UniProtKB/TrEMBL annotation:
The keyword Acyltransferase does not apply. This is Lipoprotein. One of its GO terms (cellular component) is cell outer membrane. Its main location: membrane. Keywords: Cell outer membrane, Lipoprotein, Membrane, Palmitate, Plasmid, Signal. InterPro entries: Mlp. Belongs to the Multicopy lipoprotein (Mlp) family. An outer membrane protein that may participate in pathogenesis. Some human Lyme disease patients have antibodies against this protein. The Mlp proteins probably undergo intragenic recombination, generating new alleles.
Length: 38
């Protein structure tokens, strides 16, 4: 059960910290594919 609690904390941390980073990466990927896949 202690592990579950740790994991939930990790997930909450994930959302706030990683979502903006993912959006940033996705934007970068869009630009990259636009440049290289036309």
């Amino acid at each position: 059960m202690a592990n579950d609690r740790k994991f939930n904390k990790f997930l909450q941390y994930d959302e706030s910290k990683i979502k903006p980073t993912l959006d940033h990466i996705n934007k970068g990927l869009d630009k990259y594919t636009e440049r290289h896949c036309r």
